[in-house]
Specification:
Blueprint (H helix, E strand, L loop, with lengths): L2 H15 L6 H11 L5 H16 L9 H12 L12 H6 L4 H11 L20 H7 L6 E5 L4 H10 L4 E4 L3 E4 L15 E3 L2 H4 L1 H6 L8 E5 L6 H9 L3 E7 L2 H13 L5 E5 L12 E7 L13 H5 L2 H18 L3 E11 L8 H10 L2 E9 L9 E8 L4
Parallel strand pairs: 5-6, 5-8, 6-7, 8-9
Antiparallel strand pairs: 1-3, 1-4, 2-3, 9-11, 10-11
Helix pairs in contact: 1-3, 2-3, 3-4, 4-6, 14-15
Bound molecules: S-adenosylmethionine.
The site of S-adenosylmethionine has 16 residues, from α11.
Length: about 400
């Protein structure tokens, strides 16, 4: 049996047994750890096949797994390769590097609608071009890094010396192929951070906050391992930073990361903001990068396209409202709240903005969908509010 057929059959078995309870990356990691017979090339091909399968999201769900996998592979591969041997002649002949032509061919075989890839596509923000967005899930996103202040030349020289191909977007954002191994080339977190293009664009919101008001107090209330907090330190001069999260383990990771990033002066605490937590302090800027469905990042975790439920999205929306209700009380007079998600659903974005407007006196300054799907990046949402209350 040829290698591709073997990879294909293994992927079919893995897909049959996968139930979406753990991330696909973890599921495959465990499988490969238990099946040492697969070398690195095998792992790469089998992983690629499984990811392709889930890139089809909810489309063609009625097809048997093997047929659906063949269709997904045909749609997702943007270059000819040995994998084409798996196909009947008419498929081989019809293959084209243009995705739209591949879609048109698949439509001669099955009732394939690209819009069906994305769960509840009608519920995504109006600013999103729905068909383009849904189709973008057939393509693997790029890897993005942000060069930290003062390290531009150092980073560029290291990438050039190793002949890594990259694209510089603006001054400090670098797009790389997803397979690039940059952690062995760059001192990550010190000179550059791995951060999606749209996430880097949160700097545009930060710059319109407390830039003229220094030193200012900043609370990143859903800090995780500190992606937005490091961005705030790099973007805003001389801030007094506080970070918190509900998970102690992630704050531990943040501390390790901050050490590498040479960020030494900051406060941390652990808090569940969905309870009636009350901060004794107020801040000039509260960054609320809320827990969310992550639907703007599902081109990186396409299994979510397949397994997400409406109930889950509703749970996130309810949690977001609870968290913002808690943290708005900690915004100083004249201070700001920056609400962020990496979701595309209105319920987690515009509806939460409306909720804040209805239930608080904060004023909306600006909000926007940060579209990444046309540049192989994530799509995010950000809304900046100001506490204009008097007295
Ligand atoms: C989208 S992530 C934050 C990402 C981070 N700001 C960054 O840029 O890397 C959301 C975070 O909210 C935290 N979270 C979830 N529920 C929470 C709650 N009830 N109170 C506080 N934090 C919570 C999660 O643990 C998670 O780390």
């Amino acid at each position: 049996m040829n290698f591709y057929k073997k990879y294909f059959d293994t992927a079919v078995t893995l897909i049959q047994q996968y139930n979406g309870r753990v991330p696909l990356a973890i599921y495959l990691k465990h499988y490969f750890a238990q099946h040492k017979k697969h070398g690195s090339k095998d792992r790469k091909h089998i992983t690629h096949l499984c990811y392709c399968y889930y890139r089809l999201g909810r489309a063609l769900k009625h097809l048997p797994i093997a047929t659906r996998l063949l269709t997904a592979l045909f749609l997702c591969n943007n270059e000819r390769g040995d994998w084409l041997q798996l196909y009947e002649e008419d498929w081989q002949y019809a293959y084209d590097e243009d995705l739209d032509k591949r879609i048109a061919f698949v439509q001669t075989k099955y009732a394939f609608q690209p819009e069906a890839i994305f769960f509840m596509l009608n519920n995504v923000s109006d600013a999103i071009e729905k068909t383009v967005f849904a189709k973008a899930h057939l393509i693997q996103p790029d890897l993005f890094i942000r060069i930290r202040p003062g390290f531009h030349q150092a980073v560029i020289s290291k990438l050039d010396a190793k002949q890594i191909s990259y694209e510089l977007i603006g001054n400090n954002c670098i797009a790389l192929n997803n397979t690039s191994k940059i952690d062995t080339i760059l001192p990550l977190n010190k000179e550059a951070v791995v951060q999606d293009f749209s996430s880097q664009r949160i700097a545009e919101f930060l710059q319109s906050t407390i830039n003229n008001h220094s030193p200012a107090t900043v609370w990143d209330c859903c800090a995780a391992s500190g992606g937005k907090a490091i961005l705030a330190v790099d973007t805003l001069p001389n801030i007094q930073l506080t970070v918190s999260d509900v998970r102690a383990s992630i704050i531990h990771n943040l501390k390790e990361r901050f050490k590498k990033a040479d960020i030494r002066h900051y406060h941390t605490f652990i808090a569940d903001l969905a309870t009636n937590f009350r901060s004794s302090k107020k801040y000039d800027l509260v960054i609320c990068d809320a827990p969310c469905s992550g639907s703007g990042t599902w081109a990186r975790t396409p299994e979510q396209l397949f397994f997400i439920t409406e109930e889950k999205i509703e749970q996130y929306a309810a949690l977001q409202k609870k968290i913002v209700s808690t943290v708005v009380k900690s915004v100083n007079k004249g201070g700001y709240l920056l609400y962020i998600t990496c979701s595309v659903y209105k319920e987690e974005n515009e509806a939460v903005v409306e909720f804040i407007q209805q239930t608080t006196s904060l004023q909306l300054i600006q909000s926007s969908v940060l579209k990444g799907y046309d540049v192989k990046a994530d799509t995010m949402f950000a809304a900046l509010f100001r506490n204009v209350a008097h007295g």
